């Protein structure tokens, strides 16, 4: 049975989609377990939201590339908050714009271990708590790159195609249980994503010049809406792009 105030675990909650989702769901009365490698950021956010909305929060360090880190974070969050109902497997990144044969091991491993392995580890650790609670919702954060490949994004696109496949597989595997599975797949969104990918703030800013990108809050609203729907409704896949973006590689830019 759906609780009045679900307990939501979010990875990658220190910025971008994760932080925006935490803010929006806190305003809805959800209790929050926030994790990221930058633990000081999630701790500050957790403290702020607990004070502003009177919710219970837990903040912890988590590196989703490492099984022990994920298992510890999820277990401590569930113990501190009395269980878990919702998982938002948000931690992810792009690193570089290399042609496939030029991709350094460091960037290859960062994307595949975070975007694919990290999602598996988060769900593997969190799902037993949702089953114990008797009601749950799992969110994958995919990308339009999981639907369309583009030059200079081979490994990142592969990782997001992997996210799409995992979401579709899990949807089948938990069918019949009171657990919904949703993949939210954004297009161009102005967060720290391009700063991390390009390692150059001026180049990152240029990605969004002449067009209006999505914000973290826009993607958070998609998550809030899917979560709020009646229990018999499951949004399997939600592709969301800014109006100025027609595809992964077609963007209208004003002069």
From TrEMBL:
Keywords: Oxidoreductase. InterPro entries: NAD(P)-bd_dom_sf, Sc_DH/Rdtase_CS, SDR_fam. The keyword S-adenosyl-L-methionine does not apply. Gene3D superfamilies: NAD(P)-binding Rossmann-like Domain. It comes from the Bacteria. Belongs to the short-chain dehydrogenases/reductases (SDR) family. This is Oxidoreductase.
């Amino acid at each position: 049975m759906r609780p009045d105030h679900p307990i939501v675990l979010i990875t990658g909650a220190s910025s971008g989609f994760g932080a925006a989702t935490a803010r929006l769901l806190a305003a809805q009365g959800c209790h929050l377990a926030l994790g990221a490698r930058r633990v000081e950021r999630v701790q500050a956010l957790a403290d702020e939201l607990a004070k502003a909305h009177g919710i219970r929060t837990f903040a912890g360090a988590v590196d989703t590339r490492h099984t022990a880190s994920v298992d510890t974070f999820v277990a401590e969050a569930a113990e501190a908050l009395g269980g878990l109902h919702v998982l938002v497997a948000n931690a992810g990144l792009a690193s570089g714009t290399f042609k496939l044969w030029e991709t350094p091991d460091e960037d290859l491993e960062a994307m595949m271990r975070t975007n694919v392995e990290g999602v598996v580890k988060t769900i593997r650790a969190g799902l037993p708590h949702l089953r114990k609670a008797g009601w749950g919702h799992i969110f994958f954060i995919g990308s339009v790159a999981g639907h369309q490949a583009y030059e200079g994004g081979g490994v990142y696109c592969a990782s997001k195609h992997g996210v799409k496949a995992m979401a579709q597989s899990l949807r089948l595997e938990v069918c019949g249980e009171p657990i919904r599975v949703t993949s939210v797949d954004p297009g161009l969104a102005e967060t720290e994503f391009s700063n991390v990918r390009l390692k150059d703030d001026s180049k990152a800013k240029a990605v969004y010049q002449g067009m209006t990108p999505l914000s973290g809050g826009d993607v958070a609203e998609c998550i809030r809406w899917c979560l709020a729907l009646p229990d018999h409704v499951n949004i399997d896949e939600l592709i969301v792009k800014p109006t100025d973006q027609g595809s992964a590689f077609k963007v209208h830019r004003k002069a």
